[in-house]
Amino acid sequence: MEERYATEEQQIEAIKNFWKENGIAILLGGAIGLGGLFGWRYYNEQQIEAQEAASTAYETTLNALQGEGGFTKGAEFVKANEGESYANLTALQLASDAIVSKDYAEAEKQLTNVVAHAEVAAVKNLALLRLARVQVELGKHDEALASINKMDVDQYRARALEISGDIQQKLGNTDAARAAYTEALELDGVSSLVQVKLDNLAVAGENQ
């Protein structure tokens, strides 16, 4: 696994753990704030119970993903819980599995779903980054650039620039590719892969 993917996976794990540890507490906070309007008892019985059920179903789904028919079960969970945080995390996992299988169309479908429904910025931006990579694989260069431009934080800026460089290189825009790779290196100087891509551009230019 490439280092950048390991880092992204670590962030997903952090988000998963956050929801496991704090999901109920977040709902409790909302319930206290809404208690005067809708009634604490109703909120407690309906929302908190639903959150606990979703958490349990999510854990069951994650375990099922490893077995036969796991992908189908995961997709059913996402559809049944569309828009919920656990559904978004499951869709991210489904997209990762699809990428490993080189089913980029399915990966695009799952990631597009996450982008459309994720309310947590870290999840949405990670989905956009991966969506851009998948769209590059599908030859959808304009869509990939659009996905990158929708990212609203600097957290993945270096990786987004790398993808932009890849796209510009594929389109034959060498100067634009070089500029993107150079800026990516300035933001993340330890990326040996970006340096290789930049060096390859220089070699290609010398051979022309």
Automatic annotation (TrEMBL):
Segments crossing the lipid bilayer: 24-43
InterPro entries: SecYEG/CpoB_TPR (IPR018704), TPR-like_helical_dom_sf (IPR011990), YfgM (IPR026039)
Keywords: Cell membrane, Chaperone, Membrane, Transmembrane, Transmembrane helix
Highest taxon, organism lineage: Bacteria
All residue ranges annotated as the Ancillary SecYEG translocon subunit/Cell division coordinator CpoB TPR domain in the record: 16-202
Annotated localization: Cell membrane
Membrane topology type: Single-pass type II membrane protein
Pfam families registered for this protein in UniProt: TPR_21
Family classification: Belongs to the YfgM family.
Name listed for the protein in its UniProt record: Ancillary SecYEG translocon subunit
Protein source organism: Pseudobowmanella zhangzhouensis
